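Retry 2 of 3 after timeout on previous attempt. Resubmitting C-alpha cells to design endpoint.
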C-alpha cells in the first residue's frame, strides 16, 4: 500500500486533559478488583506476587495522583501530527543554547514519554543543571505509534522500520537536517533503524537496553564470540526462556490478551510489571523504578485505551522475524549497558558500528527512570565525540 499521500504536515499543539469521569471509573474498577488465589509460598516464582500487587493497586486507587503527573507532562511543549496515516504525539523541547544538537529519543514497552521527564531538563539545558552548555540538545520525544497519545494504531504494519521512517519524516517537518537518536528497549531497535533509513541525517545513535544483542541467532554467531561472551549468550538464552511468556503472547496473539488489558486495570498493571524492574523486588542490586513513574505509564495506557494497541508492536516486530540479525549500520553507535541489561559487544558489533561502549554497574533496564544522571552523562559523552 502506498502511504505517501497520507500525510498532513500540520503540527498541532496538544495538551493532556483526561476527563474526571475516566479517573473516577478507574478508581471504581480498582476497588472492585476480583483477585485470584495464590499458591502458598509461591512468591514471585509463578509471576507477579499477590501481596505486592494488592498493595500497589491500593496505592493506585487511593494515593497516586494522576493530575500531578498530568500537569508535569503538560509542562513540556507537546504536539501532534499525522504521518503515514497515523497520529503521532510528541514532546518538543528546544534548548536555550542556539547551537544545541537535535536529538530524538524513543521509549519502549510498556513505557511512554513519561520515562523522560527527569532527563529532558539536563539534556536541553545543561547550564542550569551543572553541566557544559556545549552538551545541549533540542529534544524530540515521540510517543511510539499505538502507545497512549499516539494510539491506537489503525492498520497492520507499524513495525520498527516504519516507525523509524516516521521519525525521519517528523524530524524533517521540524526542520532538523542533522540530528542524533537515542532509545532504550524497543527504542534501542527503532533508533538504529532510523540511522539505517536516514544515514545522511543521523550523526550518531546512542542506545541502552540493547535487546537485539543479547542472544546469538545460531551456532555460527556463537563461534564469533569470545569464550566469556559465549557463556553470557547461553546464560541470556536460559534467562529469556524463563521470562519471555509475555513477549511470546504479544508477538503471536496480542488481540487475545487485549480484552483483559482493556477491561481490568489491575490486570494491566500486573502485565506491565512483568518487565518493569518492580517485577522482582528481590533483585536489590538494581535501583527500583519509582512506583509513581510505573503507575503514570500504566495510567496513560489505561486512560487512552491503548494497552492492546501497544501490545501489537510485538506482533508487528515479530512479523519481521525474531532472531533475525539487523543489517549492519555505518552510523557511529554508542551503547550504555546498565545493570540488568544483557547486551554482548560481540553480537552488537554484527549490526552496529560501535564507537562507544559503557558497562554501568548501576540502574537497570529502564535507565531514564532508574539512573537518569548516569544515562545523561553517557549520552553527553558519546555525542561530544561527534560534534
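Retry 2 succeeded. Sequence:
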Amino acid at each position: 500500500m502506498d502511504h505517501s499521500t497520507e500525510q498532513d504536515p500540520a503540527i498541532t499543539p496538544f495538551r493532556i486533559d483526561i476527563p474526571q469521569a475516566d479517573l473516577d471509573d478507574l478508581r471504581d474498577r480498582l476497588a472492585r478488583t476480583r483477585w485470584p488465589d495464590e499458591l502458598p509460598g509461591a512468591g514471585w516464582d509463578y509471576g507477579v506476587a499477590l501481596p505486592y500487587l494488592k498493595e500497589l493497586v491500593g496505592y493506585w486507587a487511593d494515593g497516586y495522583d494522576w493530575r500531578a503527573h498530568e500537569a508535569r507532562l503538560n509542562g513540556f511543549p507537546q504536539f501532534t501530527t499525522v504521518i503515514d496515516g497515523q497520529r503521532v504525539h510528541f514532546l518538543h523541547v528546544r534548548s536555550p543554547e542556539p547551537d544545541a544538537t537535535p536529538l530524538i529519543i524513543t521509549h519502549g514497552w510498556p513505557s511512554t514519554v513519561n520515562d523522560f521527564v527527569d532527563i529532558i531538563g539536563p539534556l536541553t539545558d545543561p547550564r542550569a543543571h551543572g553541566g557544559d552548555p556545549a552538551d545541549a540538545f533540542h529534544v524530540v520525544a515521540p510517543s511510539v505509534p499505538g502507545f497512549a497519545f499516539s494510539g491506537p494504531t489503525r492498520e497492520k504494519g507499524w513495525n520498527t522500520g516504519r516507525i523509524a521512517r516516521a521519525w525521519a519524516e517528523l524530524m524533517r517537518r521540524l526542520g532538523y537536517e542533522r540530528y542524533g537518536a537515542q532509545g532504550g528497549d524497543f527504542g534501542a531497535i527503532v533508533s538504529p533503524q532510523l540511522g539505517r533509513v536516514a544515514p545522511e541525517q543521523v550523526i550518531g545513535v546512542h542506545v541502552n537496553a540493547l535487546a537485539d544483542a543479547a542472544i546469538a541467532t545460531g551456532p555460527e554467531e556463537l563461534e564469533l564470540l569470545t569464550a566469556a561472551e559465549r557463556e553470557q549468550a547461553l546464560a541470556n538464552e536460559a534467562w529469556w526462556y524463563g521470562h519471555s511468556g509475555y513477549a511470546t503472547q504479544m508477538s503471536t496473539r496480542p488481540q487475545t490478551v487485549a480484552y483483559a488489558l482493556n477491561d481490568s486495570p489491575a490486570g494491566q498493571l500486573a502485565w506491565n510489571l512483568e518487565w518493569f524492574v518492580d517485577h522482582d523486588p528481590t533483585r536489590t542490586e538494581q535501583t527500583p523504578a519509582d512506583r509513581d513513574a510505573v503507575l503514570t505509564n500504566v495510567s496513560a495506557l489505561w486512560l487512552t485505551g491503548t494497552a492492546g494497541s501497544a501490545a501489537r508492536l510485538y506482533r508487528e516486530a515479530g512479523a519481521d522475524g525474531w532472531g533475525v540479525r539487523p543489517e549492519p549500520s555505518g552510523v557511529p553507535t554508542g551503547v550504555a549497558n546498565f545493570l540488568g541489561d544483557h547486551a554482548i559487544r560481540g553480537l552488537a558489533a554484527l549490526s552496529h558500528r560501535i564507537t562507544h561502549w559503557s558497562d554501568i554497574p548501576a540502574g537497570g533496564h529502564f535507565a531514564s527512570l532508574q539512573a537518569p544522571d548516569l544515562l545523561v552523562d553517557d549520552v553527553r559523552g558519546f555525542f561530544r565525540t561527534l560534534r
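Attempt log closed. Strands lie at 8-13, 78-83, 86-93, 101-106, 137-142, 179-184, 202-208, 332-338, 353-360.
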